[in-house]
Amino acid sequence: MPEPTADDVADALDALRAATPLVQSLTNVVSANFVTNVLLAAGASNAHIDNVHEAAGFAAVASGVLINLGTPDDATAAAFDLAADGASAAGTPWVLDPVGVGGLPWRTDLAAHLLTKHPTAVRGNASEIIALAGQGNSGRGVDSSSGSDAAVPAAIALLEFAQVVSASGSVDYIVGRGDSGPVGVRVGGGSPLLTKVTATGCSLAALVAAYLAIAPTPLIGITSAHAHVAVASDIAAENASGPGSFAVAYLDALAAVTPDDLRRRALVEPFSLSTGRA
C-alpha cells in the first residue's frame, strides 16, 4: 500500500462531498456543537447519538462512528461499548479519540478496553497516543507536552489494534498497516490558532470518521482528514485577527477549500519509521 499523496486527498474530498457521509458522534459536551458545524462545513453530516438505547443500532446504519473520551461517565461509557460493538458487527469504520488518557486511571482503563475492540483508527495528540500504548505519561489534562514525532513508536505499537493511528501536532504523524509492514506519512501546515479554539482536535477525529467512510483505504482516509484541516486552517488564519475570528473563518474555509486547493497546498509526504525523516 503506497503512502497517500496530495492527489489522493484531493480525490477523497471530491468523494466526501459527493457522498455526504453521516457520522455518529459519541463526543464530549464541550465539543458537540463545534463537531457538528465542522462536519457540515466540510461536506459531511452528524448525529449525536450517545445513549445506551440507540448507540449500537445507529452505529450499524451510520457511515462512520466517533468515540471521544472527553467527558465520559458511566452511561456514556456503556454507550461507547455498544457503539463499538455495533460498528464492528456492521463493518462501520470507527475512530477512537482517547482524550486525556494517561493521567486519569478510570478514563485510561476505559480507553484500553475500547482499544481491544479494534477501532479502524485512533487519533490523538502525542501524549495521548504515548499513554494509550503504555509507553509513558507526558500529558497535561487534554493537552500534550510531547512533540508529535515522539509518538511515532507508540503509534506503531497501536497498529496491533487499529489499522491507522495519527498523532496531531505542529506536524501530524500518521502510521498505517502496509503490505509488508507499517508505513508512515506526515501532514504539515496547519495554523497554530487551531490550539486556541476548543474542539478542533475532537472535530478532526470526527472528520477522520467521515473520510474513512468514503476513502479507498484507511490510510488515505485519515490523511485526507488531516490535510483538509491543515489547509483550511492555514486559509482561515490568513483572514483572522485572533481566535474568535479564526473559528468563524475556519468553518468558512472548510467549506470553501477545493480539491485543487488540496493538490496545491497540502503538505503530505512519506517519512521513515526508523528516523522520522522524509
Automatic annotation (TrEMBL):
Binding-site list for substrate: A199
User: Which Pfam families does the record match to this protein?
Assistant: HK (PF02110)
- Which Gene Ontology molecular-function terms are recorded? ATP binding; hydroxyethylthiazole kinase activity; magnesium ion binding
Residues making up the signal peptide according to the UniProt record: none
Which cofactor is recorded for it?
A: Mg(2+)
Keyword Transferase carried by entry: yes
Enzyme superclass (EC): transferase
For this UniProt record, the keywords arranged alphabetically read as follows:
ATP-binding, Kinase, Magnesium, Metal-binding, Nucleotide-binding, Thiamine biosynthesis, Transferase
What reactions does this protein catalyze? 5-(2-hydroxyethyl)-4-methylthiazole + ATP = 4-methyl-5-(2-phosphooxyethyl)-thiazole + ADP + H(+)
Q: Which residues cross the membrane?
A: none
* E.C. designation(s): 2.7.1.50
Question: What are its GO biological-process terms?
Answer: thiamine biosynthetic process; thiamine diphosphate biosynthetic process
Pathway(s) = Cofactor biosynthesis; thiamine diphosphate biosynthesis; 4-methyl-5-(2-phosphoethyl)-thiazole from 5-(2-hydroxyethyl)-4-methylthiazole: step 1/1
Question: Which residues make up the binding site for ATP?
Answer: R123, S168
Recorded hits in InterPro entries, A to Z, give: Hyethyz_kinase, Ribokinase-like
So what does this one do?
A: Catalyzes the phosphorylation of the hydroxyl group of 4-methyl-5-beta-hydroxyethylthiazole (THZ).
Instruction: Extract the NCBIfam families matched here.
Output: PRK09355.1 (NF006830)
Q: Which family does it belong to?
A: Belongs to the Thz kinase family.
Q: What is this protein called?
A: Hydroxyethylthiazole kinase
* Protein species of origin: Rhodococcoides kyotonense
Q: Lineage from the top down? A: Bacteria, Bacillati, Actinomycetota, Actinomycetes, Mycobacteriales
